[in-house]
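Schema walk-through. Below, the input block comes first and the output block second. Nothing else is stored per chain. Lengths vary across the set, and this one has 427 residues.
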Amino acid sequence: MRTSPDAQAPLAPRVRPRTSWRLIATLALLVGTRVVAADAPDCKTRLLESLGWRFIPTPTQQVSIEAGTPCGRADLAQAQAAGDLVVRLPRALKSDARSRLVDELLHHPATHCAYGFKLGDATRRAVDKLAANRGYKFSGLQMGWIGFGPTGARRDGWEPVASFGRGYRPLASNSRAIDAFYQGHVRAECGVGRQIAQYATQAELYGREGFDAEFDADEIVIGTFNRLHDTRSILLGSSAGEFTRDGLAVEASRAGRQAFMGLPGFIFHVFDRSKLDDLNNQAENFVVYDVDADAAAALRDHGGFEHYNERNQAIWALAKSMPVYRPKRYFERLLFERDAELRASLPPAAQATLAQLDAELADPFYRGFRVYVHRQGVKPVGFHIARLLDRNPRTPFRIELALHNLHTTLFDRYVAHALRDCTAAAP
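--- output ---
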């Protein structure tokens, strides 16, 4: 929840030109994949099949790509049951034509949707483990930006790269460092919580050995967002590569629900700091956990987040007119938990306002767009809007996606890693 003056803002970070040898190799692998092997189409086909594409031989002379709409499906099984991700190809298709076909499919929008299924599953596995760890707690700045307890960071597999707990990288194994947040006793604010969720998603996507092999330790840096800009972090440092800038989720909403899986974002105050009552809750950093069909349809119909940022302001204006006396967690209990006794105690004028608030928060976006925030766990966006009315009642809040590279650099690295593994295993 807490962010500092150097926390990530919805502006482009400084992107360093320095590029690691691993990223150079990754990019080389993707340019026709000639570096991997001369007969790479077989490995590319296996990768595409692992993502969900089905290749069906036919007696015809024409290739037919029947991509469908996988981004709008709940999961891969539903997509395949609907006939998505099908390629019908001639049995006698020549090798050079097949090579061109698989290259085209690797860059097909439906492939990114299929990758979204894997990314979503990996995100949920990571988040479920993080949320289940009772030893992973929230802390304010007075305890240090990140606190590893009396045993110190090294025991948990991390070493400092900045003073006052503002930056760490894995000491040895990347996966062991993530385990500290899965199983250990650590304190951090929600910005670090988002970073760990993003790194842990990659760990779940690759598996322990793959995660350790693919990423150098100094690419897995945690700390203040400004600190990450000056490192090789795959999130915001020199290894991040190409960013997607879709803060208001216009493109993601157009693509469909799987385009949101694992994306980072934040809910932040509209008015300046003089209107904040609780600095620990001036913002909430999140990763998207899941988006149901109704929420995705609402986002598509409204063209992204800006409509809901306007509704957030309307909700805040309505909440200001509620009774002045408000017990602890008033709006959270009233609007999210729907506390029957509290709701019944409201005077008639407040009951009318409550009905308006209920109508606003009944929108599918507020109920079906679920995000992970440390230490709140997995909740729909509507919970956070209600919660922040309690914590900082003098300002409305906005929601935006952060800069990310899940569908650019990190997708490319995932593809290159899979192709390297495939060719290394080939006779």
